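discrete fold record:
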Amino acid sequence: MEKEIQMIEDIRSELLNSVKDLSEEQLNKKVEKDRWTIMQVLDHLYLMEKSLTKAIQMTLENGEEQLVESKPIHFTVDRTTKVDAPPFVTPTDEKQSLEQMKDKLKSSRKDLLSFLESTNKEALMKKAYPHPIFGQIRLDEWIPFIGFHEKRHIEQIDELKAKR
């Protein structure tokens, strides 16, 4: 699990580096009518990590054991397949500061890491939680999924930055 944690931490650093030089105005500016602002992308990532941590915890506690094959979750970074965010991870239009967002991201990551410290990988491998594209994903694979998902959105942020 150490390798997965290092991976998601490295990607989180990359994410924060990608936005560190942007003003509040640039972060909250809508550059295309039907696309999120950069801040909304960050908020989506916070909401996703928070909800996945809860889902993994609940599934580990209450879910049925099932044998699920490993999934090619690294394909998450492939943005040719569009996936609409479910309502519970769709950001609001509320403007936020980068400091507020960093605090939220730090909080969701702290909750995830605290949970992982008290959980063994073998237990996570015995249960699964559904994904809209991949189907059932083993709980242990949801950890790197969080990183791949953030990596996917770093590309989106780069596109938005290029259009500002």
In short: The CA atoms of residues 124 and 135 lie 16 Å apart. The beta strands are 128-131, 135-138. The chain is about 60% helix and 5% strand. The two ends are 38 Å apart (CA to CA).
